[in-house]
Design brief:
mainly alpha
């Protein structure tokens, strides 16, 4: 995120920067984590990274976190912990579907 912000932060509008972060950084940040059981502390660390990025992008300084959350809501930017929970549900559904297939074929082999 810092790389994108450092390269185009002062040139591009906020929408462009956020779209790049959403498509490049967040996907990399969350890659493979749906297979991991993350603790509340680990999820908070992921959210902290994004919150700090928003503070720099919108120059909110030390204002309350609600200001950052309002900015995220305005741009429909979901936090990593929310995205992780959604990915985790999809992963579990696919895993259970595969498990049912293996059980079904196991019974067919008898």
């Amino acid at each position: 995120m810092q790389f994108i912000f450092g390269k185009i932060g002062g040139i591009a509008c906020e929408e462009v920067v956020l779209q790049l972060v959403r498509s490049k950084c967040i996907s990399s940040l969350l890659y493979g984590l749906e297979a991991c059981a993350l603790t509340k502390s680990e999820l908070s660390s992921l959210d902290f990274t994004v919150n700090r990025f928003f503070m720099k992008l919108f120059r909110t300084g030390n204002r309350p976190i609600e200001v950052v959350q309002n900015c995220q809501a305005c741009f429909e930017f979901r936090s990593p912990s929310v995205l992780w929970a959604e990915r985790m549900k999809k992963f579990e559904a696919r895993y259970l579907a595969c498990d049912r297939i293996f059980i079904h074929y196991g019974h067919c082999m008898d």
